[in-house]
Amino acid sequence: MALDNKRDKHLSFTAMVIDDNTVRNGRGLSDQWADSVVVRPRTTERHITVHKTLVLGFAISILTLIIVTIIAVLLSVKFEECTGEPSGRPASGNHTKFNQTRDSQVHHRGEEHGIQPWKLLRLPTSLRPIHYNLHLTVFMDNFTFHGQVSIEFECLNSTRFIVLHADRLELQRAMVYTGERRRGALKVHRQFKYPANQVLVIALNGEMEPRRSYKVNLTFHARIEYELLGFFRSTYPQLGDKRYLAVTQFSPIHARKAFPCFDEPIYKATFKISIKHESSYLSLSNMPVEGSEPDEEGWVTDHFVRTPRMSTYYLAWAVCNFTYKETLTNRGVTIRLYARPDAIQRGSGDYALHITKRLLEFYEDYFKVKYSLPKLGKFTKMCCLMEGISCFTAYVH
Protein backbone atom coordinates (compact mmCIF):
# COMPACT_ATOMS: atom_id res chain seq x y z
CA MET A 1 0.00 0.00 0.00
CA ALA A 2 2.78 2.35 0.95
CA LEU A 3 4.57 1.64 -2.36
CA ASP A 4 1.42 2.24 -4.35
CA ASN A 5 0.84 5.54 -2.65
CA LYS A 6 4.38 6.66 -3.38
CA ARG A 7 4.08 5.63 -7.06
CA ASP A 8 0.78 7.60 -7.44
CA LYS A 9 2.34 10.69 -5.89
CA HIS A 10 5.34 10.42 -8.22
CA LEU A 11 3.11 10.19 -11.34
CA SER A 12 1.00 13.13 -10.21
CA PHE A 13 4.12 15.21 -9.66
CA THR A 14 5.46 14.24 -13.07
CA ALA A 15 2.17 15.19 -14.77
CA MET A 16 2.16 18.53 -13.00
CA VAL A 17 5.71 19.20 -14.14
CA ILE A 18 4.80 18.32 -17.73
CA ASP A 19 1.68 20.52 -17.65
CA ASP A 20 3.64 23.36 -16.14
CA ASN A 21 6.34 23.15 -18.79
CA THR A 22 3.75 22.90 -21.50
CA VAL A 23 1.93 26.03 -20.39
CA ARG A 24 5.22 27.87 -19.85
CA ASN A 25 6.48 27.05 -23.33
CA GLY A 26 3.11 27.95 -24.98
CA ARG A 27 2.66 24.49 -26.50
CA GLY A 28 0.08 21.83 -25.94
CA LEU A 29 0.03 18.11 -26.42
CA SER A 30 -1.45 18.58 -29.82
CA ASP A 31 1.64 20.57 -30.82
CA GLN A 32 3.83 17.75 -29.64
CA TRP A 33 1.92 15.29 -31.74
CA ALA A 34 2.15 17.74 -34.65
CA ASP A 35 5.92 17.80 -34.29
CA SER A 36 5.98 14.11 -34.71
CA VAL A 37 4.05 14.29 -38.01
CA VAL A 38 5.91 15.08 -41.27
CA VAL A 39 4.23 18.26 -42.74
CA ARG A 40 4.31 18.68 -46.51
CA PRO A 41 5.24 22.14 -47.86
CA ARG A 42 2.29 24.33 -49.09
CA THR A 43 1.78 24.94 -52.84
CA THR A 44 2.25 28.73 -52.78
CA GLU A 45 4.70 28.60 -55.69
CA ARG A 46 1.99 27.21 -58.02
CA HIS A 47 -0.45 29.94 -56.96
CA ILE A 48 2.12 32.64 -57.60
CA THR A 49 2.79 31.20 -61.08
CA VAL A 50 -0.94 31.27 -61.94
CA HIS A 51 -1.29 34.90 -60.82
CA LYS A 52 1.72 35.92 -62.88
CA THR A 53 0.18 34.28 -65.97
CA LEU A 54 -3.12 36.15 -65.52
CA VAL A 55 -1.41 39.50 -65.04
CA LEU A 56 0.76 38.91 -68.11
CA GLY A 57 -2.30 37.97 -70.23
CA PHE A 58 -4.19 41.09 -69.10
CA ALA A 59 -1.23 43.31 -69.93
CA ILE A 60 -0.90 41.76 -73.38
CA SER A 61 -4.65 42.33 -74.02
CA ILE A 62 -4.42 46.01 -73.06
CA LEU A 63 -1.35 46.49 -75.27
CA THR A 64 -3.09 44.78 -78.21
CA LEU A 65 -6.16 47.00 -77.81
CA ILE A 66 -4.01 50.14 -77.83
CA ILE A 67 -2.16 49.01 -80.96
CA VAL A 68 -5.41 48.18 -82.79
CA THR A 69 -6.88 51.59 -81.88
CA ILE A 70 -3.81 53.41 -83.18
CA ILE A 71 -3.91 51.45 -86.45
CA ALA A 72 -7.64 52.19 -86.91
CA VAL A 73 -7.09 55.94 -86.38
CA LEU A 74 -4.20 55.98 -88.85
CA LEU A 75 -6.23 54.07 -91.45
CA SER A 76 -9.23 56.43 -91.11
CA VAL A 77 -7.02 59.50 -91.56
CA LYS A 78 -5.40 57.93 -94.60
CA PHE A 79 -8.83 57.03 -96.05
CA GLU A 80 -10.04 60.62 -95.69
CA GLU A 81 -6.93 61.89 -97.45
CA CYS A 82 -7.45 59.43 -100.32
CA THR A 83 -11.18 60.07 -100.85
CA GLY A 84 -11.03 63.78 -100.18
CA GLU A 85 -14.20 63.62 -98.08
CA PRO A 86 -14.45 65.82 -95.00
CA SER A 87 -14.77 64.18 -91.62
CA GLY A 88 -17.82 66.29 -90.76
CA ARG A 89 -20.82 67.78 -92.47
CA PRO A 90 -21.38 71.47 -92.95
CA ALA A 91 -23.76 72.90 -90.44
CA SER A 92 -27.07 74.10 -91.76
CA GLY A 93 -28.34 77.56 -91.01
CA ASN A 94 -29.87 80.73 -92.38
CA HIS A 95 -27.45 82.01 -95.00
CA THR A 96 -28.45 85.55 -95.84
CA LYS A 97 -25.11 86.76 -97.13
CA PHE A 98 -23.20 84.26 -99.18
CA ASN A 99 -19.82 85.94 -99.03
CA GLN A 100 -19.94 86.38 -95.27
CA THR A 101 -20.98 82.95 -94.10
CA ARG A 102 -18.79 80.45 -92.36
CA ASP A 103 -20.13 77.77 -94.65
CA SER A 104 -18.80 79.65 -97.66
CA GLN A 105 -15.36 79.92 -96.11
CA VAL A 106 -15.33 76.22 -95.25
CA HIS A 107 -16.22 75.20 -98.80
CA HIS A 108 -13.68 77.56 -100.28
CA ARG A 109 -10.95 76.31 -97.98
CA GLY A 110 -11.95 72.73 -98.78
CA GLU A 111 -11.61 73.25 -102.51
CA GLU A 112 -8.14 74.67 -102.04
CA HIS A 113 -7.13 71.51 -100.18
CA GLY A 114 -8.57 69.15 -102.75
CA ILE A 115 -11.96 68.35 -101.21
CA GLN A 116 -14.48 67.28 -103.84
CA PRO A 117 -17.46 69.69 -103.44
CA TRP A 118 -19.89 67.47 -105.37
CA LYS A 119 -19.75 64.92 -102.55
CA LEU A 120 -21.20 67.36 -100.02
CA LEU A 121 -24.90 67.12 -99.20
CA ARG A 122 -25.45 70.81 -99.98
CA LEU A 123 -24.26 72.81 -102.95
CA PRO A 124 -21.05 74.76 -102.37
CA THR A 125 -21.72 78.45 -101.73
CA SER A 126 -18.95 79.72 -103.99
CA LEU A 127 -21.51 80.60 -106.70
CA ARG A 128 -24.82 82.48 -106.58
CA PRO A 129 -27.36 82.39 -109.47
CA ILE A 130 -28.71 85.68 -110.80
CA HIS A 131 -30.89 84.87 -113.81
CA TYR A 132 -32.07 81.89 -115.90
CA ASN A 133 -32.95 81.97 -119.60
CA LEU A 134 -34.77 78.70 -120.25
CA HIS A 135 -36.00 77.54 -123.65
CA LEU A 136 -37.98 74.29 -123.91
CA THR A 137 -39.30 72.32 -126.86
CA VAL A 138 -42.05 69.91 -125.82
CA PHE A 139 -42.97 66.85 -127.90
CA MET A 140 -46.33 65.52 -126.79
CA ASP A 141 -46.33 62.68 -129.33
CA ASN A 142 -43.46 60.76 -127.68
CA PHE A 143 -43.41 62.61 -124.32
CA THR A 144 -39.92 64.03 -124.50
CA PHE A 145 -38.55 67.55 -124.30
CA HIS A 146 -35.38 69.34 -125.33
CA GLY A 147 -34.04 72.27 -123.43
CA GLN A 148 -31.38 74.93 -123.39
CA VAL A 149 -30.66 76.98 -120.30
CA SER A 150 -28.32 79.91 -119.83
CA ILE A 151 -27.57 80.61 -116.18
CA GLU A 152 -25.98 83.88 -115.16
CA PHE A 153 -24.23 83.58 -111.82
CA GLU A 154 -21.82 85.48 -109.60
CA CYS A 155 -18.60 83.98 -108.29
CA LEU A 156 -18.24 84.76 -104.60
CA ASN A 157 -15.10 82.75 -103.87
CA SER A 158 -12.53 81.63 -106.40
CA THR A 159 -13.21 78.12 -107.63
CA ARG A 160 -12.88 76.05 -110.76
CA PHE A 161 -15.97 73.90 -110.12
CA ILE A 162 -19.55 74.62 -111.17
CA VAL A 163 -21.87 72.27 -109.27
CA LEU A 164 -25.54 72.21 -110.31
CA HIS A 165 -28.46 69.94 -109.56
CA ALA A 166 -29.53 67.69 -112.44
CA ASP A 167 -31.56 64.50 -112.20
CA ARG A 168 -32.64 62.22 -115.08
CA LEU A 169 -31.32 64.74 -117.62
CA GLU A 170 -29.09 63.82 -120.54
CA LEU A 171 -26.55 66.60 -120.92
CA GLN A 172 -25.15 67.24 -124.38
CA ARG A 173 -23.01 70.35 -124.17
CA ALA A 174 -21.73 72.82 -121.60
CA MET A 175 -20.12 76.20 -122.24
CA VAL A 176 -18.88 78.72 -119.68
CA TYR A 177 -17.97 82.29 -120.56
CA THR A 178 -17.71 85.79 -119.16
CA GLY A 179 -19.61 88.88 -120.25
CA GLU A 180 -22.24 89.03 -122.95
CA ARG A 181 -20.07 87.65 -125.74
CA ARG A 182 -18.96 84.10 -126.15
CA ARG A 183 -15.45 85.12 -127.11
CA GLY A 184 -14.71 85.15 -123.39
CA ALA A 185 -15.37 81.40 -123.17
CA LEU A 186 -13.51 79.47 -120.49
CA LYS A 187 -12.04 76.09 -121.32
CA VAL A 188 -13.95 73.21 -119.76
CA HIS A 189 -11.65 70.49 -118.47
CA ARG A 190 -14.42 67.91 -118.05
CA GLN A 191 -18.06 67.53 -117.08
CA PHE A 192 -19.67 64.61 -115.29
CA LYS A 193 -22.67 63.67 -113.18
CA TYR A 194 -22.55 62.49 -109.58
CA PRO A 195 -25.86 60.57 -109.22
CA ALA A 196 -25.49 60.00 -105.47
CA ASN A 197 -26.24 63.70 -104.85
CA GLN A 198 -28.10 64.37 -108.14
CA VAL A 199 -25.57 66.96 -109.28
CA LEU A 200 -23.77 67.91 -112.47
CA VAL A 201 -20.13 69.00 -112.17
CA ILE A 202 -18.32 71.23 -114.66
CA ALA A 203 -14.59 71.42 -113.97
CA LEU A 204 -12.71 74.29 -115.60
CA ASN A 205 -9.02 74.48 -116.41
CA GLY A 206 -8.62 77.70 -114.44
CA GLU A 207 -10.32 79.30 -111.48
CA MET A 208 -13.08 81.88 -111.72
CA GLU A 209 -12.40 85.20 -110.04
CA PRO A 210 -14.42 86.46 -107.06
CA ARG A 211 -17.02 89.24 -107.49
CA ARG A 212 -17.33 88.57 -111.23
CA SER A 213 -20.32 87.39 -113.24
CA TYR A 214 -20.21 84.37 -115.53
CA LYS A 215 -22.64 82.42 -117.69
CA VAL A 216 -23.01 78.71 -118.27
CA ASN A 217 -24.95 77.37 -121.26
CA LEU A 218 -26.29 73.83 -121.08
CA THR A 219 -28.13 71.77 -123.67
CA PHE A 220 -30.11 68.76 -122.49
CA HIS A 221 -33.06 66.48 -123.14
CA ALA A 222 -35.23 64.17 -121.03
CA ARG A 223 -38.50 62.27 -120.89
CA ILE A 224 -41.81 63.60 -119.62
CA GLU A 225 -42.36 60.92 -117.01
CA TYR A 226 -45.71 59.53 -115.91
CA GLU A 227 -45.45 60.56 -112.26
CA LEU A 228 -46.27 63.54 -110.07
CA LEU A 229 -42.70 64.88 -109.87
CA GLY A 230 -40.71 67.27 -112.00
CA PHE A 231 -42.07 67.80 -115.53
CA PHE A 232 -44.62 65.01 -115.88
CA ARG A 233 -47.62 64.02 -118.00
CA SER A 234 -51.19 63.29 -117.03
CA THR A 235 -54.35 62.14 -118.83
CA TYR A 236 -58.05 62.95 -118.86
CA PRO A 237 -61.04 61.77 -120.96
CA GLN A 238 -62.52 64.07 -123.59
CA LEU A 239 -65.38 62.96 -125.89
CA GLY A 240 -64.44 59.32 -125.42
CA ASP A 241 -60.74 59.91 -126.17
CA LYS A 242 -57.75 60.01 -123.87
CA ARG A 243 -56.08 63.42 -123.86
CA TYR A 244 -52.65 64.30 -122.48
CA LEU A 245 -51.19 67.30 -120.75
CA ALA A 246 -47.72 68.04 -119.36
CA VAL A 247 -47.37 70.00 -116.10
CA THR A 248 -44.74 70.64 -113.43
CA GLN A 249 -44.43 69.89 -109.73
CA PHE A 250 -41.10 71.27 -108.49
CA SER A 251 -41.71 71.44 -104.75
CA PRO A 252 -39.65 70.68 -102.81
CA ILE A 253 -36.59 69.49 -104.83
CA HIS A 254 -37.83 68.40 -108.25
CA ALA A 255 -36.95 71.33 -110.50
CA ARG A 256 -33.70 69.46 -111.13
CA LYS A 257 -35.71 66.88 -113.09
CA ALA A 258 -36.71 69.54 -115.65
CA PHE A 259 -33.52 71.60 -116.10
CA PRO A 260 -30.07 72.02 -114.50
CA CYS A 261 -30.31 74.56 -111.71
CA PHE A 262 -29.33 75.56 -108.18
CA ASP A 263 -32.23 73.62 -106.69
CA GLU A 264 -32.13 74.83 -103.09
CA PRO A 265 -34.48 77.48 -101.61
CA ILE A 266 -31.59 79.75 -100.62
CA TYR A 267 -30.60 80.25 -104.28
CA LYS A 268 -33.08 82.81 -105.61
CA ALA A 269 -32.98 84.24 -109.12
CA THR A 270 -35.20 85.57 -111.91
CA PHE A 271 -36.49 83.36 -114.73
CA LYS A 272 -37.43 84.00 -118.35
CA ILE A 273 -39.21 81.04 -119.94
CA SER A 274 -39.87 80.23 -123.60
CA ILE A 275 -41.89 77.13 -124.54
CA LYS A 276 -42.15 75.73 -128.05
CA HIS A 277 -45.07 73.37 -128.63
CA GLU A 278 -47.57 72.21 -131.21
CA SER A 279 -50.15 74.83 -132.10
CA SER A 280 -52.99 72.52 -131.01
CA TYR A 281 -51.82 73.04 -127.42
CA LEU A 282 -51.42 76.14 -125.27
CA SER A 283 -48.74 76.85 -122.69
CA LEU A 284 -49.00 78.47 -119.26
CA SER A 285 -46.37 79.67 -116.80
CA ASN A 286 -45.95 81.94 -113.79
CA MET A 287 -46.06 85.15 -115.82
CA PRO A 288 -48.23 86.30 -118.74
CA VAL A 289 -47.27 85.60 -122.33
CA GLU A 290 -45.08 88.41 -123.63
CA GLY A 291 -45.40 87.30 -127.23
CA SER A 292 -45.97 84.28 -129.44
CA GLU A 293 -44.26 83.54 -132.72
CA PRO A 294 -44.98 80.74 -135.18
CA ASP A 295 -42.12 78.42 -136.01
CA GLU A 296 -42.26 75.67 -138.58
CA GLU A 297 -45.62 74.40 -139.70
CA GLY A 298 -47.86 73.46 -136.81
CA TRP A 299 -45.54 74.80 -134.05
CA VAL A 300 -45.53 77.96 -131.96
CA THR A 301 -43.18 79.45 -129.36
CA ASP A 302 -44.56 81.36 -126.36
CA HIS A 303 -42.29 83.84 -124.59
CA PHE A 304 -43.22 84.69 -121.01
CA VAL A 305 -42.48 87.83 -119.03
CA ARG A 306 -39.49 87.75 -116.70
CA THR A 307 -40.41 86.56 -113.20
CA PRO A 308 -39.60 88.24 -109.90
CA ARG A 309 -36.65 86.92 -107.93
CA MET A 310 -37.67 83.57 -106.44
CA SER A 311 -36.60 80.01 -105.63
CA THR A 312 -36.66 77.24 -108.21
CA TYR A 313 -39.55 75.35 -106.63
CA TYR A 314 -41.89 78.31 -107.30
CA LEU A 315 -41.34 78.02 -111.04
CA ALA A 316 -44.15 76.32 -112.98
CA TRP A 317 -45.42 75.72 -116.51
CA ALA A 318 -47.94 73.56 -118.34
CA VAL A 319 -48.64 72.43 -121.91
CA CYS A 320 -52.28 71.44 -122.44
CA ASN A 321 -55.37 72.08 -124.57
CA PHE A 322 -57.60 73.39 -121.79
CA THR A 323 -60.00 76.29 -122.05
CA TYR A 324 -60.75 78.89 -119.38
CA LYS A 325 -63.42 80.83 -117.54
CA GLU A 326 -62.76 84.17 -115.89
CA THR A 327 -64.08 86.63 -113.32
CA LEU A 328 -63.11 90.07 -112.04
CA THR A 329 -62.28 91.19 -108.49
CA ASN A 330 -63.52 94.41 -106.93
CA ARG A 331 -60.15 96.02 -107.64
CA GLY A 332 -60.10 95.03 -111.29
CA VAL A 333 -57.90 91.93 -111.17
CA THR A 334 -58.90 89.35 -113.77
CA ILE A 335 -58.92 85.74 -112.57
CA ARG A 336 -58.99 82.87 -115.02
CA LEU A 337 -59.63 79.21 -114.38
CA TYR A 338 -58.24 76.70 -116.88
CA ALA A 339 -59.87 73.26 -117.08
CA ARG A 340 -61.18 70.63 -119.49
CA PRO A 341 -63.60 72.11 -122.04
CA ASP A 342 -66.50 69.89 -120.92
CA ALA A 343 -65.83 70.71 -117.25
CA ILE A 344 -65.91 74.42 -118.02
CA GLN A 345 -69.22 74.02 -119.88
CA ARG A 346 -70.78 72.09 -116.97
CA GLY A 347 -69.64 74.71 -114.47
CA SER A 348 -67.65 72.16 -112.47
CA GLY A 349 -64.88 74.68 -111.81
CA ASP A 350 -67.09 77.58 -110.73
CA TYR A 351 -66.48 76.97 -107.03
CA ALA A 352 -62.68 77.10 -107.46
CA LEU A 353 -62.99 80.29 -109.53
CA HIS A 354 -65.19 82.14 -107.05
CA ILE A 355 -63.32 80.99 -103.93
CA THR A 356 -60.07 82.23 -105.51
CA LYS A 357 -61.69 85.63 -106.04
CA ARG A 358 -62.91 85.79 -102.41
CA LEU A 359 -59.54 84.74 -101.04
CA LEU A 360 -57.66 87.32 -103.09
CA GLU A 361 -60.04 90.11 -101.99
CA PHE A 362 -59.84 88.98 -98.35
CA TYR A 363 -56.01 89.07 -98.27
CA GLU A 364 -55.89 92.44 -100.02
CA ASP A 365 -58.21 93.88 -97.36
CA TYR A 366 -56.51 92.11 -94.46
CA PHE A 367 -52.97 93.22 -95.32
CA LYS A 368 -54.01 96.53 -96.89
CA VAL A 369 -51.79 95.72 -99.85
CA LYS A 370 -52.99 95.55 -103.43
CA TYR A 371 -51.98 92.49 -105.42
CA SER A 372 -48.92 93.74 -107.28
CA LEU A 373 -48.15 91.05 -109.88
CA PRO A 374 -49.76 90.79 -113.31
CA LYS A 375 -50.97 87.28 -112.36
CA LEU A 376 -50.79 84.82 -109.50
CA GLY A 377 -47.15 84.00 -108.80
CA LYS A 378 -47.63 80.27 -109.17
CA PHE A 379 -50.73 78.84 -110.72
CA THR A 380 -52.56 76.26 -108.68
CA LYS A 381 -52.81 72.76 -110.10
CA MET A 382 -55.53 70.54 -108.65
CA CYS A 383 -55.50 67.00 -109.96
CA CYS A 384 -58.62 65.40 -108.53
CA LEU A 385 -61.75 63.47 -109.36
CA MET A 386 -64.25 65.94 -107.90
CA GLU A 387 -67.27 66.24 -110.20
CA GLY A 388 -65.42 64.70 -113.11
CA ILE A 389 -62.55 67.23 -113.18
CA SER A 390 -59.23 65.45 -113.74
CA CYS A 391 -57.05 68.54 -113.69
CA PHE A 392 -57.58 72.28 -113.75
CA THR A 393 -55.44 75.33 -113.28
CA ALA A 394 -56.39 78.59 -111.59
CA TYR A 395 -54.26 81.68 -111.98
CA VAL A 396 -54.60 85.43 -111.97
CA HIS A 397 -54.04 87.82 -114.89
TrEMBL record:
Keywords: Membrane, Transmembrane, Transmembrane helix. GO terms for biological process: peptide catabolic process; proteolysis. Residues 93-103 have a biased composition (Polar residues). Residues 129-314 form the Aminopeptidase N-like N-terminal domain. The chain crosses the membrane at residues 54-77. It comes from the Eukaryota. One of its GO terms (molecular function) is metalloaminopeptidase activity. One of its GO terms (cellular component) is cytoplasm. InterPro entries: Aminopeptidase_N-like_N, Aminopeptidase_N-like_N_sf, M1_APN-typ, Peptidase_M1, Peptidase_M1_aminopeptidases. Pfam families: Peptidase_M1_N. Residues 85-111 are annotated as: Disordered. This is TRHDE protein. The gene is Trhde_3.
